[in-house]
Amino acid sequence: ASSLRCLRGHNGPVLSLSNELLGDDGSKVLASGGEDGTVRLWSLSSSGKRGQRALKATLHGHEKP
Hints:
Blueprint: E1 14-22, E2 28-34, E3 38-43, E4 55-60
Antiparallel strand pairs: 1-2, 2-3, 3-4
């Protein structure tokens, strides 16, 4: 199997994913929560290679439930 896209940004394992989000313009957004205490929002509409330009926001200070 081959990868469709590689998104790089978390400093450690990714613990959760959700693709139920929509951007302001109706584009699809993926949210990923990592052990590094961040939630990252990724544009699934971005055409950048290896996830470049796909990262739209990083939210800091999150903890595991």
